[in-house]
Request: fold
Amino acid sequence: METTQTSLNESEDRKATLASPSTASLDLILQLVHGYWGYDTLRPLQEEAIRATLEGRDSVVVLPTGGGKSLCYQIPPAIASQTHIVVSPLISLMKDQVDGLIACDYPAAALHSGMTADEKNETMRDLKAGKLRLLFVSPERLVMPGFLHLLSQLDIRAFAIDEAHCISQWGHDFRPEYRQLAVLQDRFPQASVHAYTATATERVREDIAAQLCLTKPAMLVGTFDRPNLIYRIVPRLDVHAQVIEVIRRHAREAAIIYCLSRKDTETMAGALKKVGINARAYHAGLSQSQRNSTQEAFANESLDVVAATVAFGMGIDRSNVRCVIHATMPKSIEHYQQETGRAGRDGLEAECVLFYSAGDIMRWKSLFERSAEDLDDAVHIIAAQTLLLEDMRRYCTVPSCRHCTLSEHFGQAYPEPDCKACDICLGETAAAEEATEIAQKILSSVARIQRLSGISYGIGHNADVLIGANTQAIRQRGHDQATTYGLLKGTPKKVLTQWMYQLFDQNLLSRSSGDLPVLELNEASWEVLRGNRKVKLMKTAIETVKETSISTISWDGVDRDLFEHLRNIRRELSEKSSVPAFVIFSDRTLRDLARRRPTELIMFKAAHGIGDAKVKKFGKRFCLEISDFCREHSLSVDIVIDPNSASETAPAAPSPTTQTNTAKITAFEMFAKGKTIDAVMTALSRAQTTTAGYLCDFIEETKPKSVEKWVSKSIYVEVAGAADHVGFDKLKPIYEHLKEKVAYHQIKIVLAHARNHQE
Ligand code: ADP
Ligand code: ZN
Reply:
C-alpha cells in the first residue's frame, strides 16, 4: 500500500498546477499516461472520452476490443483526485484490471465475493479514506442499498460501466442484473455515468443510453476495423490437419480454437495433443474448477492453446493471443467480430483463420430449430437468426477484402483499396485456374448421371464418378460407363466437394432439401454449361501463407532469441507474484526491449509501455539480463530509436541505422579530438556501453597509436597480460581472470587496440 501512496501524492502534485480538472491540458493527461504506463500518445477518442468524464458529461464510448477503453476511465479520477466506480461483469476481469493497475502503482481495488473478509475490510478502509482512484464492483454489489448509501456519503462523481452492452437485450451478452444500474442517475444526480462497450450496432448503443437514463450523452464511436488482424477464410477439408498447420505457425504463442460443440473441443484438443501440442478443451460442461484451472493456466502462460466453445469468452484478458481459429463458421458476424477480437489486443499482428464448409449452414439451422422448439415466437426467432447466418455465409463465400466487408457490415466505410492483411488482398485465394471449365465438367456430369439413371444423386456419389472411383455403388449403377466417369481424375475428392459447395454458394448448382439432398441443375447451371457464364472458384488450401507487412514491421530489428529469453523471465516473475504475465509486460514491450536492448535504466524507460513503477520494479533485472544475453550473443546494445517513427500506427520503428550513424559520426569526431568516454556519452545522451562500442569502432578504423586517453597504462598492461593467458577472442575469460575488477568496456577497448598491433 505504501507505493500506492507515493504515486497518489505524485499525481496530486501534478494536479496542483491545475485550476479545474475540466480544463486539464493535454500535456497533463499525457504526463499521467506516460508516468503510469509509459505510453507517449493517446489513441483515437481517448482524449474525448477522458474530457467527457472530466466535464461531468454522460457518455457512451464504443471502441473495438484493444482500442484502449480502460485508459478512458483510469485517467480522470487521477486528474481530479476523486474516487470513481467501475462496474464490471466478471470477477476475473476485475482481478486482471486491478492487478495491472497495482503493478503500475495506480491506486485501485475491487470488491467481490472471491476476497477474504480482511481484504474486503482493507479495501473499505481505503475507499472511505479516499485513497482509491478506482473501485471495481459488480452491478449486483453496487445496487445493494447499504453500498449505495455508503457511496452517496462519499460523494462519488463518476461511474464507468464496462461491457455496457450487457444492459441491452439486443447485445450478444444480455445480463438482467445490469438493468438495475438505471438507479444511478436517480441516486447520484451530481455524478456522470459513462458506458463502455465494443459492440457496434446503433440499436445497442441507443438502448444503452436509454436503459442507463443518460442525459444528452456524448456518443463516441470509434473505428471498428482492427488493422493488426490478418483474416483468412479457408475451405474446410481435414480440419484437424489444417488447424495443426496453423498452430505450428504460432509455436509457443497463444491461440484459441473455437469449435461448435463440446465434443468438437475435446476431439480437437485430443488431435493437437497427439502431435505434441499442449492444448486443453474448455466448455460449459466441465466443472467450475476445471474451467478455472484452464483459464488460469492460459493467463499465466503455462498453457498456450485452448480448444473452446464460445463459453471461453469475456474473461479472457490475455493480450498476446496471436491466433484465433474458427473450426466451424460462427453464427453471425457479430459473434465472429467478438471472438476474433480476442486476438492481438496488444496491437501486434495476429491471425484469424476461419475454416468454412457449406455444411456449417445446415448444422446451425438445425441447432436454431432445436433451441427454439419450446419458444412461443419460434418462427420469428429462427428467421432473425437465419438472416444473421446469411450475412456470415456471404462474408465467407464472397471473395472481397475481409477488412472492408467487416467495416461495411458495421456501417463504416473502409478507405483502403488493399488492406494488406487478408487472404484476398494478399492474393492467397486466387481463383482456381480454368474454374469455368471445372464447373462445366461438374455440371455436365450431374446432368449425365441424372439422364442415365432417371434420378439424381448426392454430392458424394457425383464426386466419385468425376474422380473415377471404383465403388460398389458406381459399378452397380453402371456409372463407370458414363462419358463423364473420371473426368476430373487426380483431383482429391475433398477438393472436388469443396468446389461443389462453392457452386451451391454461388447458386450455380442446387441441392434438394431433406435428409438426403441430391444435386439438381438450375437456370444458372445451364448458362454455365452453354458457355454463357464465367465461374470463379477459390483455391482450396492455403498453399502459401504470405508474410504480411504488419508482421515484418513489428518484428523489425527484434532479436527473436532475446525476445524468447525475456518471455521466460516474464513467466518466472508472473509465477512468483501470481499475476498474469501481461500484467508485468505486454509482448509489445518485450519486443521493443529485444529491439532496443537497453542495459541502463534511462534506455530501459524509453521502450514502449514502461511507466515509472515498472522501471523501479523490473528495470535493473531486465537491464542485467539483456546486457548478459547480448554480451554472450555478441549483439549490439542500447540502440536508439527515433520516437517519431515508433508511433502507434507503425507498430515498430524502422531500422535505426540512420540515427545511429549520425551519433557515431559525432562520436568519432569527438574521439579524434581526444574527448573522454564520459564527455561523448553526455554529449550524445548515449549509454556508456554504446559509447564504448563507438570508441572500439573508432580504434579499429583509425588505428590510433595509443589508447591512453581512455584506458590507464596499468589497466592496459593487466588486460593485455590476461589476454595472453586466456586468449584474445572472448571477453568473459579475461574478465574472470582479472577477478571481475576491470570493466567490460575497458577490456573491449584494450582488445580493439591490441588487435590492431597483432596484425
Ligand atoms: P479495451 O478494453 O478497449 O479492449 P484495453 O483498455 O484493454 O482495451 O487496452 C488494450 C491495450 O492497449 C492495453 O494493453 C492498454 O494498456 C493499451 N493502451 C491503451 N491506451 C494506449 C495508448 N494510448 N497507447 C498505447 N497503448 C495503449
Ligand atoms: Zn483485404
Summary: The radius of gyration is 31 Å.
